[in-house]
Amino acid sequence: MQKIISQIIIAIFAIVGTFMIAWVLYQSELDQITSEFEQDVDQQVNTLEDELVKTRATLRHWKSFYEAAGDIEPQQFSRIALDVLESYPALDMISWTPFVHRAQRPLFEKQFQAQVPNFSILELNKKFILPKSTVSDQLLRSQMERFDPRKMFIASSEKDFYFPVMVIEPMQTAGFMVGVDLATINRINFTDSVSAAMLTGDIVALPATPSPFSPTHEPVLITFVPIQQSSTVGGQQQPQVKGFIASTLGVGKLVKQSMLVDLPEGIHFKLMDETGDDGLRLLFQTEEFATGLGDWYRRPLLDAFDRKWVVMAAPKPSYIASRISLLPYGVVVGGLVFTILLLLYLNLLRRQAAVIQRQVDERTVQLRDANENLNLANERLETLSRIDSLTDVANRRFFNETIDKEWSRAQREGLPVALMIIDVDNFKGYNDLYGHLKGDECLQAVAATLKKVFSRSGDLVARYGGEEFAIILPNAGGEAMRMAEKCRAAIEALKVSHEDSSTAACVTISIGLSSVIPTAGLKSDDLLDCADKGLYIAKEHGRNRVIYHTCHTRLSKVKQA
Prior knowledge:
CATH topology of the largest domain: Beta-Lactamase
Distance between the termini: 75 Å
Strand content: 15-25%
Largest sheet: 6 strands, antiparallel
Structural class: alpha+beta
Radius of gyration: 53 Å
Number of strands: 20
Low-confidence stretches: 554-560
Helix content: 40-55%
CATH architecture of the largest domain: 2-Layer Sandwich
């Protein structure tokens, strides 16, 4: 045993040492791969930032151009917008939205009706306005799929000012927006940031929202470029908002244009907006990939129109597996092989002792099996010596042993013991009429019924001889008479036909019963004699009955049931 324990300890130390060395090597390579992974992500995110910077610069250039040009001609704006859309595929839509004062509305609508019959300034139907508390990514997308954007606007009510869409490109997909007052759209709602842009002239971006111009409603970033003009107030030049150039930037197109989707194989990433206001939080992601939040590499974008955009990337197992070397695995395999060879060597040293021990164990097992077989044979022999082979109840020999034991125990404890002697009525006639085979079946049925009636652990049902049975009832007391009657009724209820019986049309039994608390003046034979006398009286008085015969010294009296 000590040798085995020593080998186990040696094996444990060898295996643990092997895995520790392999783990250190693996962690070292994993750190290197993680560093390369972060460099791959940073390099691609830089290109996305460059695209955002170029887009912002284009919008600023356009702002400077129109602020210097003065009036904005719709036809000229459309031509420039189409050129910009062609040059920057990430842009989905560009529109010109002038500022219209309430007093200017009639003239504005009349002038525009010359180009668009029945033109009027429109506003968003109130039933399409979502409370901020209910806005979610899923709800925004589901609304886009349920309604027709062309049916969600109605004629605008009276307001102090309006920002109606005057020109929008591409007209094929976004033409329905012409005339819509952007100040009424609940995703814009001219929040504080838009209101501040009117004064500062800064470009402002709203939370990303599902595009109404795309069949798949991909996220778009809505930007507003305020076009200002100078006016004199109180002798001082102050800027006034002339209108907004609004554009929608397709987030998915921007990502693809920046080649971010061309990251090395095995990298999953997603683009998130963590600004905190309403809008889409998840802007773009590659295929679904389950990973814990702590496994993500976060890289904020430096210039995303003042919004907090974050690229989150995670390596897939395939990314790591393709870059990890076989050295850690080689160390594990080599260590295991060394451990196995060492154990084989140690095993050779104790093989001879094991062979001898095995021979001793085999001989011990053989002796134990032989002893167990002998005990089983003795137990079966003992059982056979106690059981009547025909009726499967105790035989006369076991009955005699048991009555003496129960008598001694009852005498010692001062408890009553009862005894029944049972005889199958007219059984000789049954054998003569139906044959001995049927007679044996009848006795088996009677014995099985008696075993069911007397089910207490101390009760003993025995075949006393021929068609007679005896039942010992320890500590039965006043229950003995009731149990005897129940026994008689159970046999009669079997309805075993007996045409030769002078007692009944079926097999019945007669019972002699006696019980006593053993004293020094009595023996078990006295109880047996009293029960036998009760059986004799039962037969003399017509059979199929129970006769209780009192056992008291040498005197007795009869009680019939």
